Amino acid sequence: GERLPFAQEDIRWHGHALECRIYAEDPDNQFFPSPGKITRIYRPVGPGIRIDSGAYAGWTVPMEYDPLLAKMAVWAEDRPAAVSRMLRALEEYSVGGIKTNVSFFRDIFADECFQAGELHTGFIDEFFARRDAARLPVADSEAEAAAALVALLHTNKRQSNRTAASPPVSKWKLGRL
Predict the structure, then answer these.
(1) Helices (H) and strands (E) in the chain, counts
(2) Could you report how far apart the first and last alpha carbons of the chain are, in Å?
(3) From CA 146, how far away is CA 124, in angstroms rounded?
(4) pLDDT of residue 157
(5) Residue 99: helix, strand or coil by DSSP?
(6) Does the pLDDT value for residue 143 go beyond 90?
(7) Does the pLDDT of residue 120 top 70, yes or no?
(8) Which of 100, 99, 83, 91 is closest to 19 using CA atoms?
(9) pLDDT at 159
(10) Mean pLDDT score of the chain
(11) Distance, CA of 118 to CA of 65 (rounded, Å)
(12) Confidence class of residue 161 from pLDDT cuts 50, 70 and 90?
């Protein structure tokens, strides 16, 4: 019931914080759980990084429970610095023996739209569409021409081998089984 020694107007925003929840799941397989034994784990350390975790090398992530491995938070003076710090922390975070969503977070934090703060409820779907489009092979007319030439030469070689030595006729076709 006592009064606080400050007023609401005295409260000011200071810095920027971001958090990633590290899960034992496979982002390349619709985020399916990835239970199993953790063979190694390296966590980032340094100013502005906080990790809350109970996971350790040798621990088996069970299938029956929430596969949360850690909550990793970073703080910095502003959003660009916090994004940069989180990217560094994600590059240093490594878990062996199971799949995690760390690579997904690396991709998200490296995304230009994310870095620009262009976030909304459809962001993840748009992110996947951008990422998948960027992964499509670019048409290379020289490579296509070379592939067509190899296919043509291979086809001609097979045809010339057939005429040189006719394949044996199937006994099924001759009715002699």
Answers:
(1) 6, 9
(2) 101
(3) 38
(4) 62
(5) coil
(6) no
(7) yes
(8) 83
(9) 61
(10) 88
(11) 34
(12) low
Tokens encoding 5: 């020694």
Average pLDDT (8-21) is 94
Contacts of 75 (CB under 8 A, 6+ apart): 15, 16, 17, 48, 50, 82, 85
In one letter, which amino acid is 118?
Answer: E
| Residue listed under structure tokens 């934090």 | 109
Per-residue model confidence (pLDDT) at position 168:
63
- How far apart (Å, rounded) are the C-alpha atoms in residues 130 and 119? 14
Please identify which residue in the block is written with the tokens 């005429």. Answer: 163
Q: What is the DSSP string of 10-56?
A: G----SEEEEEEEESEEGGGTTEE--EE--EEE---STTEEEEE---
The whole-angstrom separation of Cα 17 and Cα 78 is: 8
